[in-house]
Input
Amino acid sequence: MEYEKTNLGRVYVVGQTTISSKKFDMLAEEIEKNFIEADVIVDKTICNATEVRQKETREMAKKFHTMIIIGGKNSSNTKELVKIAEENCQNVYAIETVDEIKNIDFSNAESIGIMAGASTPKESILDVKEYLENL
Output
């Protein structure tokens, strides 16, 4: 990345609570390196539950043949989980409800992992789990 010279005396970096922790750390480090003369303040507001869920998704996606991520299509948290799963698993499906998986052919799926966004209702997760158990 290229940065323009600035006369800023202070730069404040704050991250959305659902951004990838790894991505935030890389961006903060890049900013700190390039604003040498500025006082760079980094406020990592990523919640622990989000970091744990992202880590679990990464680990699960490496172990499972297929991953299903349940959550809102516009949810930043869910989008990040999908991205993490896709980096580690070839077969990833992002859904909001159990109805969306009823037309997916799982006959070649050796194993299926399920992860859900932070605000996904427990009932939605249980519905998907029950559906998959009855395949």
The beta strands are 10-14, 39-43, 66-70, 91-95, 112-116. Residues 65 and 109 are 6 Å apart (CA to CA). The mean pLDDT is 87. The longest helix spans residues 48-63.
